Amino acid sequence: MLDIADELHGWIEEGRDFAVATVVSVGGSAPRGPGAALAVDSEGRALGSVSGGCVEGAVYDLCTAALRDGETVRERFGYSDEDAFAVGLTCGGVIEVMVTPVTAHAPSRAVFRAALSAAVRDEPAALARVVQGPAAFLGRALLVRADGSHEGGLGGHPELDRTAVTETRALLEAGRTGTVALSEDGSHCPGGLTLLVESRTPPPRMIVFGAVDFAAALVRAGKFLGHHVTVCDARPVFATPARFPEADEVVVDWPHRYLRSTPTDGRTVLCVLTHDAKFDVPLLTQALRMPVAYVGAMGSRRTHEDRERRLRDAGLGDRELARLRSPIGLDLGARTPEETALSIAAEIVAARRGGTGLPLTGGATPIHRDLSGAAA
């Protein structure tokens, strides 16, 4: 639900009745992960997607039926010879979808409204819903905020809400969407209730160091991937909003000094495009010791060898240097700034998702990998 929060918030503020279908589990080469949503209002208008087109028509019908009947339902869609071109997933995967009516009298409407409001304000919050268990629990929801406060509840044993809040907050802190199995009394025994936890956190940061020509293209690629993009350079003549209109921020500062003072986390991406030792070495010495998602540096192989020698002289060891992606990007044969930005963006995605960077043609590994049991 939270992946279409901006549009859905408008619907709920207008007082519309709607039903929302949410992917609660996937298997095989399913096109979209848990949390993907499609909503249909009482006038038949739709937004979002659960499958990239494979089963949208069938899910749309489930939503209209839920609005009519007021019942929360769960449905499985998978590949078979009979239904592959009807309502099945021709990619060979399986998805399970829960459809929840959100009408004026729906018990969870207030929780959904609070969750959507938090999402559009970029406030860290997670929405937990019962997606499997006794019918009396199905669709119940609670909203958990970063400070541990919560709204709504799952009902049942008092320990259930307390345990659900604890588990939901842990996924929120990791910025993950996934499922949690609980028993009705709140213990961790599987087979009782399954919660789908949708986390919504501020967008991950991409910091591009070096206000060079390639940086403008990388800013566009970073925005396309959903990052909050900052450009940093010590030279005020180059680091200007006019040169990087699509960046969220343009900062004039020494790169290592800015990195030391700005917030980062385990999702932050650092791209060093300066290929100038006086900027690179102090910056990378700091960056490679930080728990960020990706550190890449532009330059030729000769530049990389010289840079690595300087970094070793600065005290970095093999483990820290192994984190450095240099020369930056995947080997696409890129020449132009746009092609280079594409190669860098591709490497960032591969690093995040565990991809190999190899062609899918002729490969035998799964197209969609499950690295942790939950989608980020």
Percent range for helical residues? Answer: 25-40%
Radius of gyration, in Å, reads 23 Å
Largest sheet: 6 strands, antiparallel
Shape: elongated
Structural class: alpha/beta
Instruction: Order the strands across the largest sheet as they lie in space.
Output: 8-7-6-10-9-17
Approximately what portion of the residues adopt beta-strand conformation? 15-25%
User: How far from one another are the termini?
Assistant: 15 Å
Order of helices and strands: HEEEHEEHEEEHEEEHEEHEHEHHEHE
Mean pLDDT across every amino acid position: 87
Question: If you had to describe this structure to a student in words, what would you say it looks like?
Answer:
This protein has 376 residues and is an alpha/beta fold. 31% of the residues lie in helices and 24% in strands. The chain has ten helices and 17 strands. It has helices at residues 5-13, 56-69, 109-120, 158-174, 213-224, 255-261, 277-287, 301-313, 318-321, 337-353; strands at residues 18-27, 37-41, 46-48, 73-78, 94-102, 125-132, 141-145, 150-153, 177-182, 193-200, 205-209, 228-233, 249-252, 269-272, 294-297, 324-325, 374-375. Strands 8-7-6-10-9-17 form a six-stranded antiparallel beta sheet, with helices on both faces. A six-stranded parallel beta sheet has the order 13-12-11-14-15-16, with helices on both faces. Strands 3-2-1-5-4 form a five-stranded antiparallel beta sheet.
